[in-house]
Description:
Helix content is about 35%, strand content about 40%. It has a 5-stranded mixed sheet with strand order 1-5-4-3-2. A hairpin with a 2-residue loop joins strand 4 (about 100-115) and strand 5. It has one domain (about 5-140): Nuclear Transport Factor 2, Chain: A, CATH 3.10.450. It has about 140 residues and is α+β, with helices and mostly antiparallel strands.
Amino acid sequence: MTSTVEYNKELVRRYYAAATSNLSEMDQIVTAGFVDHHFPPTLPPGPDGAKQFFTNILGSVFGAMRIEHYDLAAEADKVYCFFALHATHTGEFAGIAPSGKELVIPAVSHFRIEAGKLAEGWEIFDSGALLQQMQAKHAE
């Protein structure tokens, strides 16, 4: 039998897998009221907001996305994840034209689980590293 902590960690793994490959799974992973506090406030809550973020916002800048998990820690209804997004720079971002090169963007996320689904999320990504990589790719 899987413990609650292990289930919650697997739920976060599933979230990131769905975000980069099969967005239809968001309906089973996040609550109807899911809010990720790093998403633009104009997005709706729940699975639709998550799908829009990963398609219209992240997907408009990056292609061939994959997540590499470095560490997951969980306690009660919280999961913390240190990971990196590996993605191809395919769209303009912050005035920087697409380079077509792979970028690695380190990030840390924190999720709250409610009734077996993700209910709330927070994320901090290394925006300085992102911009530095994008600019360096153009200098090559």
